[in-house]
Amino acid sequence: MMIKKYLFSIILFLFFLLISSISVYATRGCCSWHGGVCGCDTSVGRQICCDGTYSPSCTCAYIPQNYNPPPKPQFPPEIKARWYFYANEDGTWNIEMEVLDNNPTKYSAVISKCAGCDPGPLVDFFSNKFYFNNIKPGKWYVNVKKEINEYWSNVVYWTIDVPEWQKPTPTYNLTNTNYDLGDFNKTGYDYENEYISKLIMGILGAVIGGGFMYFFTKKL
């Protein structure tokens, strides 16, 4: 009877020793290359290794968190905008838009046919001047949101009526042109002043010549 009792005690001891060894091995295996297990992040249900990383394989109790995101900041309604058109040769326009913001930050902005559509999560412009190239004539909407305290604001938009395209009219400065206009182009010679000078010299020559002719005629 005593032998059975001792045998049972030995078997029970070995059983608990085996369970303990398996538990220790599993714990070490979770973060064996990361300093061991130092805790559990219940918000994601993952074991935290002692080097600060999550265990790639071991989980723990997951407790859902009641996350309330901060309210979305509002784009200041007093901000206005102005824009300028620059004609291209292919029938399109380049648009320069300036948001009159006294506190410029980062902006996400896109020009599209959709009014009020979200321009996306990425920063498009790091100043309050936006540039859109090769825009065809018609009605367009510039959708903008502004970074405020590291969060994106709500989306606002401006309506832009891009005018019908007209071919740019070249202007020439005849005193400094690159077109082949002979000596006038290459030297900047002023033919108008030359003509006036020659006219004055001709008149003076005629007056002087006439005077001499009159003088010699009187002598004879």
Describe the protein in words.
The protein folds into two domains: 30-64, no CATH class; 71-193, Immunoglobulin-like. The chain is built from three helices and ten strands. The protein has helices at 2-30, 183-187, 191-219; strands spanning 37-41, 46-49, 54-59, 80-87, 93-100, 107-112, 129-135, 138-148, 151-152, 156-162. Strands 6, 8, 9 and 10 form a four-stranded antiparallel β-sheet that branches. Strands 1-2-3 form a three-stranded antiparallel β-sheet. Strands 4-5-7 form a three-stranded antiparallel β-sheet, with no helix packed on it. The model is unreliable at 19-28 and 174-191 (pLDDT under 50).
How is this fold's topology laid out?
Elements: H1 2-30, E1 37-41, E2 46-49, E3 54-59, E4 80-87, E5 93-100, E6 107-112, E7 129-135, E8 138-148, E9 151-152, E10 156-162, H2 183-187, H3 191-219
Record keyword descriptors for this entry:
2 domains; three-stranded antiparallel β-sheet; alpha+beta; 29% helix; 220 residues; Immunoglobulin-like
Helix amount: 25-40%
- Structural class call reads alpha+beta
The proportion of residues in beta strands is: 25-35%
Number of helical regions? 3
Please indicate the count of domains: 2
Q: What is the end-to-end distance? A: 180 Å
**Rg, nearest Å:** 44 Å
Q: What is the average of the pLDDT values?
A: 76
Uncertain spans? 19-28, 174-191
Major beta sheet summary: 4 strands, antiparallel
Based on DSSP secondary structure assignment, what is the total number of beta strands?
A: 10
The CATH architecture of the largest domain comes to Sandwich
CATH domain class of the largest domain: Mainly Beta
